Structure formats: C-alpha cells, structure tokens
Amino acid sequence: MESDKSKLNPAYSHTDTSKVNLSDEDWKKILPKEVYYVARQKGTERPWTSEFETSREIGTYYCAVCGNPLFLSDTKFESGCGWPSFYQPVSRGSVLYEADNTLGMKRTEVMCGRCRSHLGHVFEDGPPPTGLRYCINGVVLDFEKAKEAEKQYEQKK
Ligand SMILES: [Zn+2]
C-alpha cells in the first residue's frame, strides 16, 4: 500500500519525520478530492460516513496526506458523535493544535504534526485517562492492521 501511495504522493511515508511543506496547489494535484477538502480546506466529512467510526480492528491510524502515525487503535473509543474518536495521539508531536473560533464556537483544531493537514477537533469530554476526545475525520486517516499485535490478541481470547 505504502509504495503505491508514494508513487503518487512523494511526501507519503510512515517513517520519515521531516516536515512536509507543499503548496495547496500541489496538494490539490496529489490528493483525492475528498481528502483535499478536509485536509487542506478544513472541511468536515458527513457524520456516520467513515468506515473507521465503528471499526475495532487493531493497528495504527496514519495521516492519509503524509503517512505520519497519528493514533493507535487502543486509544480509539466509540463516542457516538459520528466520527472516529480517540483519547490520545501516538505521541506528543504527532499532532498540532490551534484555537478555532469559527462557526461561533470555541474549539481546538487538531492538525497533523508533520504536514499540518486539518484532522478534526479535540474536546474535553473524553474518557480516562486523558479526558480528551479527538474527533477526527475518517477520510484523512489511513489504517494499517498490526499483524503481530493482532495475533497476540487472538491468542489471548
Ligand atoms: Zn500529515
């Protein structure tokens, strides 16, 4: 999967941590329309449309724009809000935050720490241990199953 993507998108990598700085014009050429709309124009996908919303598969969620690891399936929970929800990013630097006061609301925008793509928002009504709810557009997530982790999980059952 990754090699297919990097042919079309030179910035895409699951391991490269260098910052990605492409112009919106470049992204428009590279990204599928719906990804561009959310990631670069701060759009929001319709609720209940992401296959990830109810997914319980074990693995890692990556930025669909640049491949940066964002969230682990362990930190995913069903919030009932209509979008994939997590209580914690993979690491401190995997996402960035910015105050968002649009639409008459005080919210905190969540962006990819590597390519600054818009991902969603974070709210303070999540479950322990963080009390946070990262409400993320599924269209800007790429999921990869953890093969080894899944095996161990299967054995424990
Ligand atoms: Zn990214």
Strand proportion: 25-35%
Shape verdict: globular
From the alpha carbons, calculate the radius of gyration and give it in angstroms: 15 Å
Bound small molecules, by name, code or SMILES, are: zinc ion
Number of strands: 9
Mean pLDDT: 91
Written description of the protein model:
The chain is α+β, with helices and mostly antiparallel strands and 157 residues long. Helix content is 21%, strand content 25%. The strands form two sheets. It has a six-stranded antiparallel sheet with strand order 3-4-8-7-6-5. The chain has a three-stranded antiparallel sheet with strand order 2-1-9. The longest helix is centred in the last third of the chain and has 10 residues, at 147-156. The site of zinc ion (ZN) has 8 residues, from loops. Zinc ion binds at residues 63, 65-66, 68, 112, 114-115, 117.
Helix-strand blueprint:
Layout: H1 2-8, H2 24-30, H3 33-41, E1 59-63, E2 69-72, E3 76-77, E4 85-86, E5 95-100, E6 107-112, E7 118-123, E8 133-136, E9 141-145, H4 147-156
Antiparallel strand pairs: 1-2, 1-9, 3-4, 4-8, 5-6, 6-7, 7-8
The chain binds zinc ion (ZN).
Zinc ion (ZN) binds next to loops.
Concise description?
This protein is of the alpha+beta class and about 160 residues long. Helices cover about 20% and strands about 25% of the residues. It has helices at about 1-10, 25-30, 35-40, 145-155, and strands at about 60-65, 70, 75, 85, 95-100, 105-110, 120-125, 135, 140-145.
